[in-house]
Amino acid sequence: MDYFAVSLPDFLVFEEDRTLADQVHCHYLMGLACFGYGRKEEASRAFRRALELDNSHLNCRIYLEMAEETAG
């Protein structure tokens, strides 16, 4: 198997906690939904929770900043 293929899912290459990754993704999606409905404070909480679980989630950082800019 070629481990450098761009189409290979990350879970086949790297050992990681899939439950944790799913939780992060769930909080991220909840944040996006709240942000889309204009509920900026709820979105910020969801993005912060996702970042507590995965500090390197770039999209959460981007959307958290956007939510906090537009909330105030």
From TrEMBL:
TPR repeats: 24-57
Family matches, as PROSITE patterns: TPR
Alphabetized Pfam families for the sequence: TPR_2
Keyword field contains Glycoprotein: no
Matches recorded under SMART domains: TPR (SM00028)
InterPro entries named among the record's database cross-references: TPR-like_helical_dom_sf, TPR_2, TPR_rpt
Domain of life of the native organism: Bacteria
Keyword terms of this UniProt record: Repeat, TPR repeat
Alphabetical list of Gene3D superfamilies matching this protein: Tetratricopeptide repeat domain
Name the UniProt record assigns to this protein: Tetratricopeptide repeat protein
Organism: Claveliimonas monacensis
